[in-house]
Amino acid sequence: MGEIIITKTKNLEYLQFNKLLEFQNEIIHAYTLKTFNFGLDKNEENRKESFNIIAKTFNVNEEDIIKAKQTHTDNVLEIKNQELNLNDIDGLITSKQDKVLTISFADCIDLMIYDPKEKVIANVHSGWKGTTKKIAQKTVYKMIKDYNCKPKNIICCIGPALRKDHFLVNEDVVRIFENEFKDYCKNNDIIEKTDFTNEKGVQYKIDTILINKLMLKEIGLLDKNIIDSNICTMCSNEKFHSCRMEGKSFKKNLGIIMLK
């Protein structure tokens, strides 16, 4: 737990990365815990209350909270003003101050990204589909192209997510990963055949966290700047929401980052 700290306020408990706290005069960031029954769900009133708590906790304007409508795409949107169409967006980037980039999670990977030199932030939702679509790399490429960012300066923090031991998939999903990541899958740690079976046959474990790390390194991010929370949402379901543990009634954790 040396990479993170947990802060508890009156209405909210949240995780922060020590690396990003080095820049706390420049950015706000947080990954929410499920204490106080906090978590995004489908009820509109509950969602409004959740964002009201976020606004009060971090002293930000509620109208500046950007809420992406995620659908497991590789679409990354640059926030320049107050974009109205946030449908089918799974990554947000901005260099604008006071724009609160929020992405929700319940097992998928949160990639919280900051370039302290160019003052650019990004918040990315990378589930297994987003991972195979390489949304992590596409976000960084966009930062390079549109904001003159250099990979060596970019910091990426990986939030709580479903880890390899619990990421059980069937052979059809394994084949997608093998096709997309031929070189990566030569690494014996990526895919592991299990003794488990279901009606579709043998199941496999896939390390999507490691794949995202390898993708980031491949485009030039430094090892020291890729920081992993090392928390599994399923193992730590008492603290974080997990779709696989909670089923259809699951709520979502919220990843938050903002330039001051």
Short structural description:
By secondary structure, this protein is α+β, with helices and mostly antiparallel strands.
SS field, number of helical segments: 7
Q: Tell me, rounded to a whole number, the average pLDDT.
A: 95
Number of beta strands: 15
Here the CATH topology equals: CNF1/YfiH-like putative cysteine hydrolases
**Biggest sheet record:** 6 strands, mixed
CATH class division: Alpha Beta
**For the terminal residues, how far apart are their CA atoms?**
27 Å
Helical content band: 10-25%
Radius of gyration over C-alpha positions, nearest whole angstrom = 18 Å
CATH architecture tag: 4-Layer Sandwich
Choose one word for the global shape: globular
The sequence of SSEs as H and E is: EEHEHEEEEEEHHEEHEEHEHE
Describe the overall structure.
With 260 residues, the protein is of the alpha+beta class. It has a single domain, classed as CNF1/YfiH-like putative cysteine hydrolases (4-Layer Sandwich), CATH 3.60.140. It has helices spanning 18-21, 44-58, 128-132, 135-147, 171-180, 208-218, 243-246, and strands at residues 4-8, 13-17, 27-32, 65-67, 76-78, 91-94, 100-105, 109-115, 120-126, 155-158, 168-169, 191-198, 201-206, 226-228, 253-259. Strands 1-2-3-15-7-4 form a six-stranded mixed beta sheet. A hairpin with a 4-residue loop joins strand 8 and strand 9 (120-126). The longest helix has 15 residues, at 44-58. The chain is globular. The two termini are 27 Å apart.
